[in-house]
Amino acid sequence: MQPNFWLERWTRDQIGFHQRDINAMLQSHWSAFAVPAGAKVFVPLCGKSRDMVWLRAQGHAILGVEFIQKAVRDFFTENGLAPNVSAQPPFERWEADGVTLLYGDFFDLTAADLHDVGAVYDRASLIALPTDGRARYVEHMSAILAPGVESLLITLTYPANEMKGPPFSVSDAEVHALYDATFAVTFLSARDALQETSHLRERGLTALTEQAYRLRRRGA
Predict the structure, then answer these.
(1) Quick check: 6 pLDDT over 60?
(2) What's the domain range around 10?
């Protein structure tokens, strides 16, 4: 999970990856998932994403996991929420207004932690991880997610020689290689995202495509 790298980024407030606006793909595709309003949505490696505020406004309870404590604290502070903080070993549980963020390691989650999750939203998890980390991430997600649960996965692709991640470029072929064994994968759409990511243009990118997928955990 490259904890030292991410801790330094958050400490120095070098978080160009944090989107101030609600993700366009989320707004375009979420209604098609027909997730019941009361269902809990799991957001892995959630940071302080404002997308969680949008999902909460749709009537969903939110469960996030994040290993940078500052990100967890900032989410509640910036949204005017006073969280109740308690121990949930191996996590620290922060909770307010239907949003629960677990401060700790994604890989410490168990199926019991996600037993009441109705859907998953992954915009910044898979693309935050290097190649070997992505395989481990998908393997663990497969182990803790109940059969039938659907996910909205959003990835990025860009010319590999133009930038070293994170965020990492994840091709359509890699998405299928990672997920096909345990998930039914449906490509939803793609869009040009370069103009709205000035921090990536400054790093030399000349092309950036955002892609959305619908994933359904296979099983009985």
Answers:
(1) no
(2) 3-217
